[in-house]
What we know:
Layout: E1 25-26, H1 28-38, E2 44-52, E3 56-64, E4 72-77, E5 80-85, H2 89-92, E6 96-100, E7 107-111, E8 124-125
Amino acid sequence: MDLGCGKSIYNPDTSNREVMNCEITLSPKAVSVLQGLMEDEEMWLYVKVKGGGCSGYLYELDLLEDEPTDNYQVITQDGVKLAINELDSSLLNGILIDYEDKLMGGGFKMDNPNAKRSCGCGLSFA
């Protein structure tokens, strides 16, 4: 599930990112939706950051069966297992992943206290 909203305009340098113990919170609605998508299968929600979008970075969510490797941090909340690449930990620390059930513009939304700015689509940040 790629949450991209635009063409890549920025290729972020990952060499200067601080690796930290990342904390991510899922809203009750996000937990419910993810549990429904997993349907009792052993799956992981990979939360990533990639270069692109209007503001510099894009959030990317992938639901995969592959277990994370050693360069990922694992967070479990209400039976949902999240995998976060250590190089993205400082950009993702403290975010709230919510789910809005709307006909237009619905889906997973990120509330990121680290973002200095974000674009109108809410999927791109700096």
